Amino acid sequence: MRPTFDPFVIPFVASMTFVLAYCIIGMIRIVFQLPKEDRRKFLRSLITPKIFWKNIKDLFGDSLFHVKIWKRKPLLGYMHSAIAFGWFMIIVVGHFETVALSPLKDMHLPLWEKLMSNLYMPIFFRYFAVEAPTLNAHIFAFLMDFFLLVIISGIVIAVVKKKRPRKVGLKRVTKFGLKEDLVRISLWTIFPLRFLAEASMANISGGSFLTKFIGFDLLFGGHYSETLSYILWWAYSTDLAIFMTLLPFSRYMHIPAEAFLILLRNAGLKTTEPRKGYAVAEIYSCPSCGLCIDVCPMSEVKENYRNTAVYFIRNIRKGKRRRDVKHKTEICLMCGKCIEVCPLGIDSLKIKMAQREKTYYKIKSDFEYLSQQTTDNRQQTVNKADKVVYFAGCMSHLTPKITRAMTKIFEYANENYEFLDKEGSICCGRPMMLTGKKEEAKALIEKNTEMIKKSGAKRLVLSCPICYRVFKEEYNLEGIEILHHTQYINELIEKERIDVDRSDKRYVYHDPCELGRVFGVYDEPRNIIDNIGLLTQGKSDKDMAVCCGGSIASLTMTKEERDEITKNAIKDLTLNHPEEIVTACPLCLKTFARFAPIKVKDIAEIVEENIVEN
Amino acid sequence: MTPSYDNTYTMKERNVLIIGGGPAGMEAAHQLKQLGFNPIIVERNDKLGGHLAQWDRLFPTSETAEGLLERLKENIKDVEVRLNSRITNIEKNAETFHVTLSNNKNFDVDAVVICTGFDLFNAEKKQEYGYGIYDRVITNAELEEYFKTHNDKRIDEPQRIGFVHCVGSRDIKVNNTYCSKVCCATALKQACEIKDEFPDADVYCFYMDLRMFGKGYEDLYLKAQKDFDIKCVRGRVCEVSENIEGKLVIKAEDTLLGTPMKMTLDLLVLMCGMEKSKGADEIQKMLNIESNKDGFIENLGAFVGMNKTKEKGVFVAGACTSPKTLPDTIAEARSTAMEVYHYLCNN
Amino acid sequence: MIDFGFSISKSSHIQMDDVDLKTFKKLEALNPDINTCMSCGLCTATCSAGNFTDVSFRKIILMLQRGKDKEALQKVKRCMMCGKCMMICSRGINTRNILLSITRLYNEEEK
């Protein structure tokens, strides 16, 4: 009969208790930091059946299998699944094994002792167990060995990733300090140590193909040394303890945090404060994997890779470093690629926006002058029901080709339209919001709302994706359909209200960030181009399209840095030798035109050029 | 030690390739011929003269471009000229260059003078000015053409005419940060000329700085103000649009008054600046010569090295290294000829 | 002092010797491109707010350089941040960030 307790379990039990306590306190803190409304929403979500099942699905899909990483980088997906799911299964199967075969099973112990031993028994089961030649025991031993092997294979890839990132398809990986190195090494060694400890006494406690045959028979040469084995069990437990103790202070905090984040997200919560509540859950969920580094346009300028999301989140987590956080907040182009690739879907842009809203501006905006502007009551001679208003936006006034093409298209389609800001406009408010002046932007939003409502139109067509976003997200234009001109023109073509000629001209389409990643308007522009010519592929498109470099979301980026991004984006776009670059944003158009070796046009322009007069 | 060139016996057999048959090329060829060498002009067009052949009259004296061109041509009537020819290859051997032309003819030269000149800035790149969108927006070159031919339907008794200076110059948004040097004087010259054609018209020049630096330029400025009532507005035009009647509406700031202004015009002339000639790119590749930050050909410094490039035996003259006026170009072509002379005599 | 019933009004000159440029120096340090303006007027001419009121980026900078802070700040307040001036500036000045820096550095109450 083997003992049921040994002092070597103490480091593990202590550290495990610490981690559990830390996480529970952390979760409670976050819940209390949530705005009242959000808190109620969250608690209610936990008992809503529909959300409950979604939670279960997402916990498996995202936390354990990392479906999102599989989609982008299968090898990395395997690495994460192997470690996370493997570990999860070892815990689950281990518990079943303990229940089925534990030496404690038939003992009569006080309840709390049973509970305590249940905490460590599955982890160190082989030390306490004696080989039971039952079929059950063999099956359990096989399963445990199998998942151990899965985990170890994952760790091998992790080591390769660290040493040779290019082998797993990464150009750059996140750089870490000493503490993170220590935690990582402790994690990498947990399962090899477990394997060695289990293998060293597999003749007594049993084992399957990995621990017994490869481990005990081959590695240890069939020789059992009690001292060596005991040392290995101590090493295993100590290693676990080091990992668990440091976990809350390291990036591995993402393991418990991301599970919690999934619950919060499924409850429909969003960041409202940069360093409280939901944002904290996101910040702690960042595994610092660095997938966002390679995709970030800022990484084009080598020194700027430290402005990417992973470093922003790391520094905001560290609490201080206000100046650095401010810098990273303000330089960001907010193109949103980092959110797309993030395995956890962490929306660092919302954190940055919330952070920007914290900026203290001594001088407040004053839009009193707008109230003196009367929106003239134009004569409504036409039937309002089918009227369309066209709002070109500030930027489009510097790209007359767009506005001219649009007015011609309206005329060809026989549209009952009104060019609302022909003589110049009030800004839509989005640029103001991007500087953090959300409240002050309201004056602009209200004035535009008044103007649009007064026009009596039922549809609003916009040429600028920046406007489109703010109109969709912040305006209250009930009963008025808001369309970007890509959507509107596509509809005209589909309903055969305009006719276009098709040629062999090769186009490439650049997805503007706000139209593509934010609203998923990917098909409409492509459909339009398919009707006009041949659509060629750039290096990356749709949700992976590169920002043009002109984004007004960045407040501090220098023109030299912007130029590098623009040149790179053009290089990507012209990969397959298109004849023209097509985009759907006046700002992208202007930005590209400076460096593009071929013509850059708005999608409205190419439609107007190829329209067939009836 | 003063160099003495007693070894001029072989000069007649020494060929000098002149790339480009504009004013710089013609003048360099003329001087080199006078010095006893055998210059060969290679010109891709079917006639000599470059941009000069398209102009009507020249600032500041208003003499005709044709007159100057005839004189330049007269000077080189004994020079070998290959029109409609492109250089397909130049290979440097020990001391000579082996030149291949588009018609597969080839020959050896002892020195090369690049006189590829400039291209006018493509005004369509400045979309906000509406060139190519609105009919009544034209360029300085098109206005010269009109003065020569008086055949342009877009210029129809305009009542109000605007000139925009610095189109494609001094503008980082088109990657040209330099001053094109000739547009200020050209604008005032053309303003006077169009006022001459349409005495009832109001003519406005929108400038940032009036750079009237050359001999007689300031007089031209005074003449424009005094005799032609040209109004100079200090401010860059930012946007051009069209109103319902098809007239142009421009926006600019009157920076001296500090107030934005709008104005309706019947004709807008864009003073397109200079960019390095696209044809020079191929030549630079063949000869391994780089461009400077403005995109023009890199020469060896602003002062004594201005006629030379880093490649031995390769010289430059005219607007291929930076925007230049005609007097500058002709003076530089002459000095380049002297540099070629020293080079060949020392070799 | 004898009261003559009138006084010589304050000189309308800008007294550059009396102008306190301490805050402007801070602004310059944050935005070195502020001094590259050549006053072409594009920003003012294109300004969205300029359609309705007297916002002028160019003039704001000049006024701050000449110590006319109060007047300048009145203009700063009316800016809509739309970024058109940045998009058109011939010298590529980051106008928006300069305006933001002003709203952080300057106090309205002083002067």
Descriptive overview:
Chain A has four domains: 9-255, no CATH class; 288-357, no CATH class; 382-491, Rossmann fold; 501-609, Rossmann fold. In chain A, 58% of the residues lie in helices and 5% in strands. Chain A contains 30 helices and eight strands. Chain A has a four-stranded parallel beta sheet with strand order 2-1-3-4. In chain A, helix 24 links the parallel strand 3 (459-462) and strand 4. Chain A is elongated, with a radius of gyration of 30 Å. The longest helix of chain B has 21 residues, at 326-346. Chain B is an alpha/beta fold and 347 residues long. Chain B is elongated and about 65 Å long. Chain B has two domains: 8-117 and 277-346, FAD/NAD(P)-binding domain (3-Layer(bba) Sandwich); 120-274, FAD/NAD(P)-binding domain (3-Layer(bba) Sandwich). Chain C has 111 residues and is mostly helical. Chain C has one domain (21-105). Helices cover 42% and strands 0% of the residues of chain C. Chain C contains six helices and no strands. In chain C, helix 3 (57-65) packs antiparallel against helix 4. Chains in contact: A-B, A-C, B-C. Chain A binds chain C through residues 330, 359-367, 369-370, 373, 394-395, 397-398, 423-428, 431-432, 434-435, 437, 444, 550, 552, 555-559, 587, 590, and chain C through 46, 48-49, 51-53, 73, 76-84, 86-88, 92, 94, 96-97, 100, 102-108.
Question: Layout of SSEs?
Answer:
The complex is a heterotrimer of chains A (614), B (347) and C (111).
Chain A: H1 9-33, H2 36-46, H3 49-64, H4 67-72, H5 74-101, H6 111-120, H7 125-128, H8 135-163, H9 178-200, H10 202-205, H11 209-219, H12 226-246, H13 254-266, H14 278-285, H15 291-295, H16 309-317, H17 322-331, H18 337-341, H19 348-357, H20 368-371, E1 388-391, H21 400-412, E2 417-419, H22 430-434, H23 438-455, E3 459-462, H24 465-474, E4 481-484, H25 485-494, E5 506-509, H26 513-518, H27 523-532, E6 534-536, H28 559-573, E7 580-583, H29 586-593, E8 599-602, H30 603-609
Parallel strand pairs in A: 1-2, 1-3, 3-4, 5-6, 5-7, 7-8
Chain B: E1 15-19, H1 23-34, E2 38-42, E3 57-58, E4 63-64, H2 65-75, E5 80-82, E6 87-92, E7 97-101, E8 106-109, E9 111-114, E10 118-120, E11 137-139, H3 140-149, E12 160-167, H4 183-197, E13 202-207, H5 217-228, E14 231-234, E15 237-242, E16 248-254, E17 259-265, E18 267-272, E19 274-276, H6 279-287, E20 314-316, H7 326-346
Parallel strand pairs in B: 1-2, 1-9, 2-5, 9-20, 11-18, 12-13, 12-18, 13-14
Antiparallel strand pairs in B: 3-4, 6-7, 7-8, 10-19, 15-16, 16-17
Chain C: H1 22-30, H2 42-46, H3 57-65, H4 69-76, H5 84-88, H6 95-105
Helix pairs in contact in C: 1-6, 3-4
